[in-house]
TrEMBL record:
This is Selenocysteine-specific elongation factor. The keyword Aminoacyl-tRNA synthetase does not apply. Coiled coil: none annotated. Its main location: cytoplasm. It comes from the Bacteria. The lineage of its organism: Bacteria, Bacillati, Bacillota, Bacilli, Bacillales. It comes from Mesobacillus maritimus. It is found in: Cytoplasm.
Amino acid sequence: MSKRYFTIGMAGHIDHGKTTLTKALTNVDTDRLKEEKERQISIELGFAPLYEDDELQISVVDVPGHERFIRQMIAGVAGIDLVVLVVAADEGVMPQTKEHLDILGFLGIKAGIIAVTKVDRVEEEFIDLVKDDILGELEGTVFEDAPFMLVDSLSKKGIEELKSKIIETLKQQEVRDSRGAFRLPIDQVFTVKGQGTVVRGTVYEGSVEEGQLLKVMPKGLEVRARQLQVHHKPASSAFAGQRVAINLSGVSKEDIERGEVLVSSEQFIVTRTLDVAIKVVEDLEYLVKQRTPIKCHIGTAEVMGRIVFFDRNELKEENEEILCQLRLEEEIVTKRGDRFIIRRPSPQETIGGGWVIDPRGNKYRFGEKTIAELEKKKVGSPIERVSAALYEAKSLPLIELNKRTALDEGTLKDTLQSEEFVLYNGKEYTLTKLIEAIEDDITDKLEDYHRENPMRQGLNKAELLQSMQKMFPKNLLDFVVENGLKKGIFTRKDQYVKTASFEPHVPKNWEKRTENLLKELRKDGLKVRYLKDYFKDAGIPDNLSGELKRFLEEQKTIVPLDDQYYWDMELFEEAVTKLRNHTGSEFEVGEAKEAVDLSRKYMIPFLERLDSIGYTRRVENKRVWRK
């Protein structure tokens, strides 16, 4: 996929002009709620398209600046690739600006631009003083080396320059990975008249297609993506980095909550206990004690829980990373590397943030031994790091594994010698467990297919692979099928794949009627009636007759002369032998009628059948035996 998708965020103190700046950049007013219009303050997240060409698509999220709306702010920032920090020239850095900066740092946002707004309100010589003041406040944050842009949203001064800087910065940035499983943390749920339930969010990773089956986690609700919209326009698919609205079938608005996650795979872990690495804010006001109640903001979820330390009983000021655990009251969906924020629920205060070391934390004893174990987990052994990369991507060549694991080439090659990994196609690696899981999945699909279609030879290989390609690379699926054929787990006839133990058969409740049909057909010899009459006399319904006819043909029990007349296969072969024995290397229709004693009604279809299967070749008014 050549096109790249990004979402940027506007962050900063209330009334510093984020929404107005967004409108100046996009011509979209993101304040859509009545209360927002009345109070002139953003409560919910606002989104707008900023820029699009053949290579790039950029969306803007305007996050609320008021302290009471910090939850929405975290939800909005969690999915963005670049932040425009908005600071009003006439006020400078304010308390909410600082809190936003802390949150951006904890969430791992690395790309930023400082937009000094309302520059027309201050004298020109005052601008340098404002910049110095801002630089002093931003020292040590992710914005300390960020470019400064001077803008005024009303007069449009500097707007085009800011837009160009945003585009230029994103063109140099790595795009989110659209391979692998789809994940979209839900930040908005609503209904559209005549359409039903719609969810909205930023695609964290992977991609989604119209019509795709998905799950709402952690509840496990199965839904279908009936329609997609990107920037209010219908779309057939959406990719990592894009804002997307998805119309879901099979679920009501009341069934889904903000903070839940829409996924394409069950590989994402549902958990309540997280091993984490955190850092705390510099000016923490209140003491954080062992098992202090906290609110954890992860993705778009906000969950109550407690913080558990293993090397201390309280925390006030700490510059170093702390290894600890979050024990939550509700299940969330997460994986290693996900970023989060923790806040004190009362009195409200941002405590800090960090990243998930292990989403499947256990109960540990207090002490340095546990800290040492968590440190090992944090760093991750080479096998763990390779496994994590392959678990996410399913299949990777050596050069890509080297990038994702940050292991040196020698260590990486030694690690890949483990039985946990498999090299296939001579160039790509995958997990042994993943191959086993795909084998099991294919077996389940084939067994389901055999149950539903007991008379068919098997499932078309191309159809089988296509049904799983949203989850796994095609070349990996192809390898697993071919490997399964070699191991005798599957067998194949022509393009059809089946489990080794399965044999096509007539369903038990139709066996007797099928026997009667074949008995009557054989009884009539070569002077048969239309095949449909035999089905009717045997009491076999029309909805089964087509499938049964194909099965009997594939089993070489019957053979068609044309689309109406069918013979018993043994009688057909006897007729062929009789005709051979009573004719020379070539013969005419009259000779054939005498040899087999058939009227023209059956003889012409019989001879044409011999031509079609290559027994004979017609030359003018004669037939010549081929074999």
